[in-house]
Structures are given as C-alpha cells and as structure tokens.
Amino acid sequence: MVMASWNGYSWECNGNVMSYLESLTTSFAIETQSNADKDGKSPTETVGLSPIEISFTTVYRVETGTKDVRGIMNAWKSMVGKAAPLIIGTEVFGADMMQLQSVSFSDIGIRSDGFIRSCKVSFKFKEYVESKKKVKASNTGSSTNSTALNIGPTTREKA
Hints:
Strand order of the largest sheet: 3-6-11-10-7
Number of strands: 11
Radius of gyration: 26 Å
Order of helices and strands: EEEEEEHEEEEEH
Shape: elongated
Structural class: mainly beta
Number of helices: 2
C-alpha cells in the first residue's frame, strides 16, 4: 500500500518494501510587510500566508526491502530543487507544487565491506511558486526615443 508519493518516488508498506513517513510536520503563518509610510497607515500590513513548509523523515534499510540504499541517497540528492505535488494517501498535501529544498542523511549504517545498509533521510519541502518572467522592452528600429512629438514612421520606414 502506497502511503505517499512525490515526483515518481513513493513511501509504501507491502510484502516487499517498507518505507514510511515519520515525524511529519507542517505549519501555517501570516506573512507581513513593513511599511515606512507616515500618512496614518499601520506600520505593518498583512500580505497573506507564508509559503507552506513540510518536513518529515524516513528510514531506508536493506532489511526492509531497499536493495540499494546508496543509490536511493544519490537519487534524492539529485532531486533537490525539483517541484511536484506531494500526495499523501490519495490527496495532495500542502500546496499544489512542493519543492524539495533540502535532503540530509544521518544514522548511516555501513557494513565492514563499505556497503551502506541503512540511513535515515530528512526531507524539507517548501511551497513552489513559479516566478513571473519580466518582459523586456525591445528597441525596434529607431535609435531615438519615442515621445508624443516624434511618434510616426522612422526615416528607414519611409524609404
């Protein structure tokens, strides 16, 4: 049974594999802006909710079905910065898109031959909001600035 999924990876408990979410935390906070305006407005204004943050841990072990713990570590490292919906159960949890901000590994168990047999992974996600691209003005011909006085065809366009 799949407990959760994000960007093609899943946390699940079944007859072959057992990896599940632990210590799930999230919070919601008001975001404010300082206002230096002196014309009677309050010094701070509520803007809205801060981006949602979610964190949790999981433990990968050879004994619980994870055959390549080192490979899982490398895969999660390569996912930092990517955004996708975080699904818990059958529903999106948090925002529509959650970006993996950081992943850290601890309690790494290593056999005497160097084989990594287990590790605890801590995940930190933050609501992903795509930045809007700025439209850059382009110069389309004339090297003079257009004002109300010189709007019209350029000398090149007249020829």
